[in-house]
Amino acid sequence: MIKEYKTIKQIASPLMVVEHVEGVTYDELGEIELPNGEVRRCKVLEVDGDSAVVQLFESAQGINLADSKVRFLGHPQQLAVSGDMLGRVFNGMGSPIDGGPELLADKRMDINGLPMNPAARAYPAEFIQTGVSTIDGLNTLVRGQKLPIFSGSGLPHAALAAQIARQARVLGDNETFAVVFAAIGITFEESEYFINDFRRTGAIERTVVFSNLANDPAVERIATPRVALTAAEYLAFEKDMQVLVILTDITNYAEALREVSAAKKEVPGRRGYPGYLYTDLATLYERAGRRQGKKGSITMIPILTMPEDDKTHPIPDLTGYITEGQIILSRDLFRKGIVPPVDVLPSLSRLKDKGIGVGKTREDHAGTMNQLFAAYSRGKDAKELMTILGEAALSEDDKLFAKFADEFEKRYVSQGNTTNRTIQETLDLGWELLSILPRRELKRIKPEFIDKYLPSKK
Amino acid sequence: MSGIITKVSGPLVVAKGLADANVSDVVRVGSNRLIGEILNMTGDTASIQVYEETSGLGPGAEVVTTGMPLSVELGPGMLNNIYDGIQRPLPEMRAIAGDSITRGISVSALNREKKWDFVPVAKVGDKLEAGDVLGTVQETTAILHKIMVPNGLKGELVSIRGGSFTVDETVAVLCDEKGKEHELSMLQRWSVRVPRPYQRKFVPARPMNSGQRIIDTMFPIAKGGTAAVPGPFGSGKTVVQHQLAKWSDVDVVVYIGCGERGNEMTDVLMEFPELKDPRNGEPLMKRTVLIANTSDMPVAAREASIYTGITIAEYFRDMGYDVAVLADSTSRWAEALREMSGRLEEMPGEEGYPAYLASRLSQFYERAGVVECMGQDQRRGSVTAIGAVSPPGGDISEPVSQATMRIVKVFWALDSSLAYARHFPAINWLTSYSLYLDNLREWYTEQFGEQYMKNRESAMAILQEESELQEIVRLVGQDALSPNDRLTMETAKMIREDFLQQNAFVDEDAYSSYGKQYRLLDLVLRYDGYCREALAKGCTNMDALFTIDARERIGRAKMADANTYEKDYDAIDAEMKQEIADVVAGGEDE
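^ inputs. structure came back:
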C-alpha cells in the first residue's frame, strides 16, 4: 500500500520538502498529484528523520502546499525497455511523444545503471571507420570508446556528428547497428537536423530518440542522458547490438546539475558547478564500453559546447579527464572554410593504438600518424614565424613544412560533410602529403615502410 | 551493537544508538549490509561514509558495527589480483554478481580455499620477534612471499609445520613471555590508516631504474622516494604511470587506479600478463597488485583505495622488497575527500577542499621511504610513491598540486604543448625537477663514471640555452644567430627528438637500459663536439654539417637492439666524425 502525504512544507523550485514521511529512502522516485489531477514526478535527494528533500523534474508552478498529494513509489526512476524502442521518439524522461502506442515493456531498468566491474570489461580494440580522415587517420575511433566532440557556439558539430553516425562501420562486419540519440536541452531546429538526417538516410528505423528540448524542464535534463544510456545498455548487452550513443549537449546537462546544486545550497566548486561534477559525469561516460562474452557494445559521442571556446572550463576539462580522448573543433579553421574544422593537434584518441596496425587498418598507420602530427605541428610553428618575420626568415626545410601544413589543412582535413573516405584512401593521402617533406625528416616511420609506401616525387 | 539510521544524503549516513562504536569502525548498513566507516561521533550519533551506492536506504534501517577499523588482509594471494577500493577481489565479485558491481557483496580478500606450499624457515625453539620470517611461500614465479611474525608478538617458537595450507590454517605456534600460546596462520590483518612499523628509516640513495630516458638520466627518482606527475588531460599521465609500472626495477608494483577510466584498468589487466619483466623474463602481472576504483564506482571507496594500496605496499616492503606504489590520480582522491567534507558540512578551505587536505596528502607520501624492516635480520625494503595529479585546466596553482609539490621530491611536469606536437613522454625539461640528484650522483659515478652526470649537465645547459635563443629567433629570425648558437639550437633539437622522445608503443624503444641511455646522449653530444671543432676550424657550411647522412642514423639510434647497440653507436660515431671532416675539407676546397 503506497501512502499519500499532504505534508508538503516548502517549495523552492526545483526542491521541495515533505514532512512526516515514513519509510522513504534515498534516491526513491515520487509522484506529486496536483488538485486538478495532474501528476508530476520527483526524486528523493536526502532524508533526515521524518522529512525528505525532494527534487522536482518539472516546474513547480501550480503546486499547492495544502492540497497537493505526494506518493513515493518505492524504487528509483526506471525505464521500460523493449526492442520496439527502435524507430521511436521519447521525451527526456522516457515516455513516448511520437503519437505511437505505449511501449510493451520487456523489462524495467533502473536508469542509474550500475558500475561496470573493470574485470568484466573487454578492451575496445575494433577499428570503426567513420570515413573522416582526421578521425580515422589521426584520432581513430574504436568500438566501445567514448570520444566527445568539443565544440563552440556556432561551430558545425552537429554536421560532424551526423556524418559519423551516417558513415560509421566496422570493416568486414554485418552486425546490427543502432543509434541512441539524446537531445539534452538543445533547440528544436538542431534536434530536427539530426532526426531529418536519420530519416533521409533510413537510419531512423534503427534509432531511438530521447528529446529534451530547450523549452522542456531543465531539471528533467539530469535524467535524459541516463534514460538514453539505459536504453543503449539494453540494446547492446541484451539485444547484441552495436550501439552508437550521441549525447548533445552536455553543457546543458551540467548547467541543470548546477541549478539543483545551487538550490540545495551546496558548497560550489569551480565556476559554481558542484564539487561532484567529475563523479557525476563519470557515471554517464563510463557506461560506454564492451563486456567480455557479450557481442554488443556502446560507443559514445558526447557533444559539448565550450563556453568562450575555453578548453579549461570545468565541463570540457572534467570531460577530457574521463573520456578516451576528444575531437576539438576550431573556430579559426571554420573561418577559413575548412569543413569539418577539426583542430588536429589538441585532438586525441587514447584508444587508437590498439585499434590500428596490421590486421586492423594497415602496418604503416601508427608511424604515418605520428609523422603527420609532428610535421603539422612544426609546419604551424613555421607559419607563425613567417607571419612575424616573413618567408625569408625560414630555413629551406621550414618552408617545406609550412607548405605541408597548408596542403594538409586543405586536402586532408577539409573533406566536406559528404565525402566518405576508406582508411586506405586516408592513409594514401597522408603519404602523398608527406612526400612534400625531405625524406630524412620522416624519422617517425620505419624505413621499410617509407620504401614501400612513399610515392616517388614528380 | 546496532543503531538506527536517521539521515541519508548520498554516501553520508547518520545513525543514532551507536554509543559503543569507535571512531573509524567499519559498520554494516541497512538490509543489504553495505560497508561503511564511522567518520565522526556526537553522543551516540555517528556520521558514516558508505563505500557503496546508498540508493534505497532510508531512516529506520539498521546499522551494525563490526568493532574493527577498516583493514586489509595480508597474505599470499594478493599478487596477480585486482581489488576494489576496500580490497574486495573483482574477479570473484564478477563470479558472484555478474558484469556489474551490485551492492552488499561480501567476499574475503584472500581466497580461503586455495592452498599454498608453506616452507618453514624458523625452527622450534627460536626466539622470534615481530617481523621475523617464519617461513616462505612461492606466491608467484616472480615473488617469494615471506610469512612474518605479526606485529606486537614476541616469544619462542613452540611448533612449526611445512606443507600445503590455506591462509587461515595454523602453521606455527608461538609462546610469548607470559607463557601464552599464539596460533599463527599465513594471514595478517592491518588497519589501512595506520602506517606499518619499521626499525628505522634511511635517506634514499639508489635510483629506481625506469627505462625512461627523461626520467633516469634527467630527473631520476630514488628507491624509497616520492614523485608527482601533474598534467592536463591528454598529456600522457597515464602512459607515464603505465611505463613506470611496467619497467621499474622494483620487486613489487601496487597500481592504484583511483577514480580513473575503467578501460585503463582493463588495459593493464590484459596487457601485463603478456609483458615480460626485462630483468627476469617473468610476466609483469606476477609482481603486480591492482587496486581499481574507477570513476563510476562509489566515491567513498575512492578515499579508502589509496590507503589500501599503500598498506599492501608496506607489507611487501616489510619482507625486504623494493615496492613502487603508483596512484592515478591523487586529484580524484582529493575530490572524494572534498565531497565527504561538504556533506559533513565542514568549513571548507581553498576551492572547497577540506582544510586537512595538505596534511592527509603528506601523511600518504610520508609512508614511502627506505627502511630497515621489523625483525632481527636487518633486511631493508623500500616503498616508492608516485602520484599522478590532474589539475583542472592544467593549472598547477590549484590546492592539490600545490600541496603535493610541497611534499614530493621529484616533479615530472607534463606539458600539453609537447603532447600536441606528439613529443612523448611530454615531460617538460625546463619546469621538471628532481631533488635526488645530489643523493644519487655518487651511485651514477660509481656505476658509469663521472661522464654520465657531466653529460646530463651539458644536455640540460644546452636545453636551457635553447629556450633563451628561441626568444631571439622569434624576434629577429634565425639569421641573427652566430654559428655556435645555431649549433646549440640544432643540438638541443637532437636532444629533444633523438634522446628525450621515447615511444612507449614500440618494443625496441619502450625500455632503455642505463648503458644505452648513456651512450645515446653521448652520441648526440659527440656530434655537437665534432661540429664545434669544425666551426673552430673555420667551417661555415652549417647546412652541410646539419644534413650529413649520419644524422638520419642518429635519429634512429634509439631503436637499436638492446644487445648490439654499442657496436651500432660506435659505427655511427665513426661515420659522423668522417662526414664532418669531409664537410670541413670540402669547405677548404671551394
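Residues 233 and 298 of chain A are 7 Å apart (CA to CA). Chain A is about 30% helix and 20% strand.
thumbs up if we can close this ticket
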